[in-house]
Specification:
Radius of gyration: 24 Å
Strand content: over 45%
Distance between the termini: 47 Å
Helix content: under 10%
Shape: globular
Order of helices and strands: EEEEEEEEEEEEEEEEEEEEEEEEHEEEEE
Oligomer: single chain
Number of strands: 29
Length: about 375
């Protein structure tokens, strides 16, 4: 792969501007963003869409593999978010001994004509006083986020080359750098997290969809699966570590996320965690040790086995009604127990909550009601 990444940041691509145009192009003449009526689409220099905004409904649709900053957006699911101009949150805590108590939080957003947040003010109680945080968002001419400042301190920063390609993202004390091929697709992602460097190489299928990220030592990987319509259907995140008490034993950790769709919208998200350890295998009634590579290979093979038991899971379902969106969330623990001499999978509900998003006549979300297993509720009201 040949990198088209610039060695130094480009001045124009990293200069903050007040966005006033309704359309802009990258230097390669591909569209950076375009507003048509109440819809705004933002793109990568490669041509891939990274964000779509429905201004009438204040809904934000992001790519499931996108690295777009979304901390200020309010989440419906992994693909769909929204952003009102004002949020009023009230949390009611249920306590069997003390009855109920509550706390209030307020946030206000300033949003430009393209639907991008440019300022957020958050008020919350602290030591019997109201604490106010001001968060500012700065963008370049292509509508790409440059900086996020909280009380004038940079908490996130993005650096681009002359073509508008993201070359480095800095969030808190962590950073990620990117390299690209001639077509503008990422080939290498290098993470620096808590003093640890992890370099991941990207692989794509014939449709130019990302299918794999993997480190050179294979201890870190992500795999992406797609359905027959090209929609993302699964993500498997893998990390491995040597057992501290046994240098010949590899601990394989997997997080598998499954997406299901109905009427072009996400209907289910399922997340399962696995911890697989196979230091030996039974051969001719004798246990034979496996080397590290064999252990890793067997762990990946078990991930394709539908009988492999996760340690825990979260299942979310989404129901889209004319005046509401209902989200049901269930947390599970799994175990394999022997009953009458036979192994039996047990799936135990450990926690649950439900969320109701209420819509007004224009389709905007005006209220979010969250109810947990114990009856505690959080209510957020939104205005535009």
């Amino acid at each position: 792969m040949v990198s088209c990444q610039s060695k130094t940041p480009d001045t124009e691509s990293n200069t903050s501007v007040n966005l006033s145009k309704m359309k802009e192009k990258f230097p390669n003449q591909k569209t950076a963003f375009e507003k048509i009526n109440n819809k705004v689409d933002f793109y990568e220099p490669s041509g891939n869409k990274r964000l779509s905004i429905d201004l009438q409904k204040s809904l934000y649709k992001v790519g499931l593999t996108s690295n777009i900053y979304r901390e200020h957006l309010i989440k419906i699911n992994d693909q769909l978010y929204f952003l009102p101009k004002k949020v009023d949150s009230k949390q009611i805590f249920s306590d069997c001994d003390k009855g109920t108590s509550q706390g209030n939080i307020s946030r206000q957003f300033e949003i430009n004509e393209l639907g991008l947040a440019i300022m957020q003010q958050a008020d919350s109680p602290s030591d019997n006083k109201i604490k106010t945080n001001e968060i500012v968002y700065k963008y370049n001419k292509f509508g790409q986020l440059l900086k996020v400042l909280e009380n004038k301190k940079i908490i996130a920063e993005y650096i681009y080359d002359a073509g508008g390609y993201l070359t480095e993202a800095k969030i808190a004390k962590n950073s990620i750098t990117y390299q690209y091929n001639k077509e503008g697709f990422i080939t290498i992602e290098e993470r620096h997290e808590n003093g640890i460097k992890i370099s991941l190489r990207y692989q794509y299928n014939s449709a130019k969809q990302l299918i794999n990220k993997m480190s050179e030592n294979q201890n870190h990987a992500e795999e992406f699966g797609y359905d027959n319509t090209g929609r993302l259907s699964s993500i498997i995140k893998y990390s491995a570590e040597i057992d501290k008490n046994n240098p010949d034993k590899l601990i394989n950790n997997f997080v598998k996320k499954i997406y299901n769709y109905a009427d072009e919208r996400l209907s289910e998200e399922k997340i399962y965690e696995y911890r697989i350890v196979n230091a030996s295998v039974l051969v001719n009634k004798k246990w034979q040790p496996l080397d590290i590579d064999q252990q890793r290979k067997m762990a990946w093979e078990k991930m394709t086995d539908t009988d492999e038991i996760p340690t825990s899971g979260i299942e979310r379902s989404y129901k889209y009604n004319e005046n509401s969106i209902i989200v049901s969330i269930n947390h599970f623990n799994f175990s394999n127990r022997v009953v009458d001499g036979k192994a039996k999978l047990e799936k135990e509900l450990s926690n649950s909550e439900s969320i109701k998003f209420s819509l007004d006549l224009s389709g905007k979300i005006v209220k979010k009601e969250t109810t947990d297993k114990k009856g505690g509720t959080t209510v957020e009201n939104y205005s535009y």
